[in-house]
Design brief:
The structure holds two protein chains of two kinds. By secondary structure, chain A is of the alpha+beta class. Chain A contains 18 helices and 31 strands. Chain A folds into three domains: 195 residues, 2-Layer Sandwich (Aldehyde Oxidoreductase, domain 4), CATH 3.30.365; 147 residues, Aldehyde Oxidoreductase, domain 4; 327 residues, Aldehyde oxidase/xanthine dehydrogenase, molybdopterin binding domain (Aldehyde Oxidoreductase, domain 4). In chain A, the strands form eight sheets. Chain A has a seven-stranded mixed sheet with strand order 11-12-9-19-16-17-18, sandwiched between helices. In chain A, strands 1-2-3-4-5 form a five-stranded mixed sheet. Chain A has a five-stranded mixed sheet with strand order 14-24-21-20-15, sandwiched between helices. In chain A, strand 28 and strand 29 form a beta hairpin. In chain B, helix 2 packs across helix 5. Chain B starts with a strand and ends with a helix. Chain B is α+β, with helices and mostly antiparallel strands. In chain B, strands 2-1-5-3-4 form a five-stranded mixed sheet, sandwiched between helices. Chain B is built from five helices and five strands; from the N terminus they run ββαβββαααα. The chains are: A alpha+beta, B alpha+beta. Chains A and B meet through helix 4, helix 6 and helix 17 of A and helix 1, helix 2, helix 3, helix 4 and helix 5 of B. The structure holds FE2/S2 (inorganic) cluster (FES) (2 copies). One FE2/S2 (inorganic) cluster (FES) binds next to loops of chain B.
Chain lengths: 713, 150
């Protein structure tokens, strides 16, 4: 039930982002935990606002973090559509997680490709409620029935020909109660949603005005940098601050249980100060950890029976009757997020109140964590969300906030703590490594009827949300493998979670990145085992009439799959569902004898149910492809001595302009609204390795590709 | 040490160690935050500025080497309204998170100042800045759009 409240005449809005006359409606934006479970809905608490001013300007508070995914444009589009607000009149202001006079923290958390799909309904209703209140205000003024008043582009019209712009009606509307129920537009009447719309934040991002976390500047502020124990879980045992204090500009060396923070007049002296120190760390047994040890533990787990996730049909019996068996083992390594903006935060602690400015995906939760850890009154903790220079799941938790608060407390001045890139990569929350052994049994015509998989993935949940581990199964590790879109009479999935002893986290598309690679590569192997066409096989085993099948057909059609590619060009296909959307991709490439790959084109089809902003959808698919291509070609974090080996963009390489393929995106709208920030990632790696197989006959079962001698041409 | 440095047409006195990278002088001393920090080792390009019109990675350019040179940052790319490349960037809806984009634009401006109609190969060779969000295809389109408009 959407709660919409008229706040226009309440004094407490003074000083808040939506203060000032006009019509102000508040709504409850649902909050979710990091994996999408709704958390304590803020009943009676409001955290999203729409204001219409007497000059007709529409201001919408942004409750979610903008990290490139385009929600700063998409969310207001949803409101403006129902409100019939002229798009050029719509302004967005960022809400901060401050409980202003009884209002809930406006920070439901941003992740899981959830911002648009989870708020579509509530924002639509808020827009519609405001529109109907303006219609009612016009009806009252003209002494006619509301049913005779229509809203269009910021003006209410009456059948008689009278009209009034929104600005003239907001005062009247501000005395009305929001309607108990609203009628949303029929999709065919939408005028903004579905139209490619340019981002509202582009202009300030091309001239340097956009404020990221690293750009926060407060009066009297100092700048610090931090080094945590490079060995995960290690502690600081000793550090002589003297060498740092001789560096000009250094103000303070602060030691904590597991870190040193150097605070100075600027980042450079802080960094020089930190580099001058020779801290001693008590690394403990964590220092014995290595990629070799983890790999051994994972391989051992692969040989043992795991916890049951899926057991349908009778797998053992089924295998006795199959005509052919296919078996393969796949693996992927740990990965860094490598957000373009390194981790950072700024804190000011004053009179029992703490203000934090940070590029953060989990501002609401951070408030509570700050209050708890530092003993502040929750009502005196404010988290201001800046632009995020990339998020991808890394910007959650306290790791990058804690040093700033400690430094601000210690120095009595506001402090911005910026991590070096090396620190950013030394203290990651890595995409877990994963291994799988898959077996399929095929019937006479070559279709898989039995599917048996054993998946070994160190658990993210165990570290971040223990409640998500049930009966030995980390739900977050198995998504994308437990429910397959293919018709299989007999399916078994077992799972094991060896302790990797490394920090893990949510990485754009999370388990779908590896499970998509495993499943879609193996389907290609099954097709190859009997010489079937990879599209033909999928067509046979996808559910008739399903969205998946429609995506497959459209992807094949757009890629002209039934026509031979150009000479020496080869193609691979994959499709995967994640976060409520289904994406199909065809990679077309050329490859030289010495394994130099030139990707000519990626054709992508996405069924995201409802296309709010097609321009952003295209951009997200393009970006996801670049992100996934980096991982497929280069991505690997090694562990040595209990620490990450790759430490900067020289050793942790990224796809560049010259490597980026042409991307061709097509959109389908065949179901309920799905996410768009992540679903473009999973299909790329298998479509690419399937194309490599088509070209060379070599099946790549282990990423990254550079480890098998491949490179970009 | 005291240095005189010319940034965006004005002279500034800064008092920092000579090894301080230009990036941090711009950001922490002059308050010019449009130039970003990404890697600190001249690999990512987020910190790109112009030194006498040449695209330069300011994280690896010490302030002591700035004597007698003219530095231009994103803030002063054009005096009257947006630069044609900035217009093209907006028209092509290039930025995602946006963090790399000021550096990308500085690199692109330098490219167009040398090659008014760059080929795809020219763009590949000149545009080596990293964009973690993967906006490369739109950057390419924006450069071509701006080249056509200029
Ligand atoms: S910060 Fe200078 S190149 Fe990366
Ligand atoms: S737009 Fe995010 S790194 Fe380029």
């Amino acid at each position: 039930m959407t709660q919409i409240v008229n706040l226009s005449r309440r004094g407490f809005l003074k000083g808040s982002a939506v203060a000032g006359g006009g019509l102000v409606l508040g709504v409850s934006i649902p909050a979710f935990d990091v994996v999408g479970n709704p958390v304590a809905p803020p009943v009676g608490q409001l955290n999203g606002y729409v204001r219409i001013d007497t000059d007709g300007a529409v201001t919408i508070t942004l409750t979610h973090a903008e990290m490139g995914q385009g929600i700063q444009t998409a969310l207001p589009m949803i409101i403006a559509e129902e409100l019939e607000a002229p798009w050029s009149q719509v302004k967005v202001v960022r809400a901060s997680a401050l409980p202003e006079a009884g209002m809930a923290p406006a920070a439901p958390g941003t992740g899981g490709s959830r911002s648009v799909r989870a708020n579509f309904d509530v924002l639509s209703r808020a827009g519609a409620a405001a529109r109907d209140m303006l219609r009612q205000a016009a009806a009252n003024r003209w002494q006619v029935s509301i049913s005779e008043c229509t809203a269009r582009e910021g003006v209410i019209y009456h059948n008689s020909g009278q009209s009034a712009p929104y600005g003239d009606l907001v005062r009247g509307a501000s005395y009305l109660s929001p309607p108990a129920d609203v009628k949303l537009k029929d999709p065919s009447q939408r005028r903004l949603l579905g139209k490619p719309t340019n981002r509202l934040d582009a202009a300030e991002k091309v001239d340097g005005r956009a404020e990221f976390g690293v750009d926060v500047n407060l009066p009297d502020m100092l700048v610090g940098t931090v080094r945590h124990s490079p060995v995960w879980g290690g502690k600081l045992s000793a550090a002589d601050p003297a060498p740092a204090m001789t560096i000009r500009g250094v103000r303070e060396v602060i030691t904590t249980e597991d870190a040193i923070i150097v605070v100075a007049d600027g980042y450079w002296p802080a960094k020089k100060g930190l580099d001058a120190l020779a801290p001693e760390w008590a690394s403990g047994k964590g220092a014995k950890n290595s990629s070799a040890r983890i790999d051994k533990a994972m391989s051992a787990a692969l040989k043992r029976k795991g916890a049951a996730v899926v057991n349908e049909g009778n797998i053992n019996q089924a295998f006795r009757h199959v005509s052919k068996r296919v078996e393969a083992t796949y693996e992927v390594p740990f990965l860094h997020h490598a957000t373009m903006e390194p981790m950072n935060a700024t804190a000011r602690v004053e009179g029992g109140r703490v203000d934090v400015w940070a590029p953060i995906q989990s501002a609401g939760r951070a408030r509570h964590a700050i209050a708890e850890e530092f003993g502040f009154d929750i009502n005196k903790v404010n988290v201001h969300v800046t632009y995020l220079g990339g998020g991808f799941g890394r910007r959650i938790g306290m790791s990058f906030i804690r040093p700033a608060i400690i430094a601000a407390q210690k120095t009595g001045r506001p402090v911005k703590v910026i991590w070096s890139r090396e620190e950013d990569m030394a203290q990651p929350m890595m995409r877990p490594a994963a291994k799988v052994r898959m077996k399929a049994g095929l019937n006479g015509p070559g279709l898989p009827v039995a599917w048996d998989a054993r998946l070994v993935v160190p658990s993210i949940s165990e570290q971040l949300i223990p409640g998500r581990v049930r009966d030995g199964v980390d739900q977050i590790s198995v998504h994308g493998m437990e429910v397959l879109p293919y018709r299989l009479d007999h399916q078994r999935l077992e799972y094991a979670m060896p302790d990797a002893g490394v920090p893990l986290g949510f990485w754009r598309a999370v388990p779908h990145t590896y499970n998509g690679f495993f499943v879609e590569s193996f389907i290609d192997e099954i097709a190859a085992a009997t010489g079937m066409d990879p599209v033909g096989l999928r067509r046979e085993i996808l559910q008739p009439g399903s969205r998946h099948l429609a995506v497959l057909e459209r992807t094949a059609a757009e890629a002209k799959w039934d026509k031979s590619p150009k000479k020496n060009h080869f193609r691979g296909i994959a499709l995967h569902e994640s976060f409520g959307s289904i994406v199909g991709q065809v990679v077309e490439l050329k490859i030289s004898d010495d394994k130099a790959i030139k990707i000519r084109k990626v054709t992508a089809v996405v069924d995201c149910g409802v296309a709010v902003n097609p321009r952003t959808i295209e951009a997200q698919i393009e970006g996801s492809i670049a992100y996934a291509l980096t991982a497929a070609m280069y991505g690997r974090v090694d562990v040595e001595g209990g620490a990450a080996v790759q430490s900067n963009f020289d050793s942790y390489q990224m796809v560049q302009m010259a490597d980026m393929p042409k991307v061709d995106v097509h959109i389908l709208e065949n179901g309920p609204i799905g996410g768009i920030g992540e679903p473009g990632v999973p299909p790329l790696a298998p479509a690419l390795t399937n194309a490599i197989f088509a070209a060379t006959g070599e099946r790549v079962r282990k990423l990254p590709l550079i480890d098998s001698g491949y490179r970009f041409a | 040490m005291a240095f005189k440095i010319r940034v965006n047409g004005a002279e500034h006195d800064v008092d920092v160690d000579g090894d301080t990278p230009l990036l941090w002088v711009l950001r922490d001393n002059l308050g010019l935050n449009g130039t970003k920090f990404g890697c600190g080792i001249a690999v990512c390009g987020a910190c790109t500025v112009h030194v006498d019109g040449v695209a330069t990675r300011s994280c690896s350019f010490p302030v002591e080497a700035t004597e007698g040179v003219e530095i231009t940052t994103i803030e002063a790319l054009s005096k009257d309204g947006p630069h044609p490349l900035q217009d093209a960037w907006v028209a092509e809806d290039v930025p995602q998170c946006g963090y790399c984009q000021t550096g990308q634009i500085m690199a692109a401006v330098a490219l167009l100042s040398q090659t008014d109609d760059p080929s795809d190969n020219d763009i590949d060779a000149a545009m080596t800045n990293i964009c973690r969000c993967g906006t490369y295809n739109r950057i390419r389109a924006a450069i071509k759009r701006a080249a056509a408009a200029m």
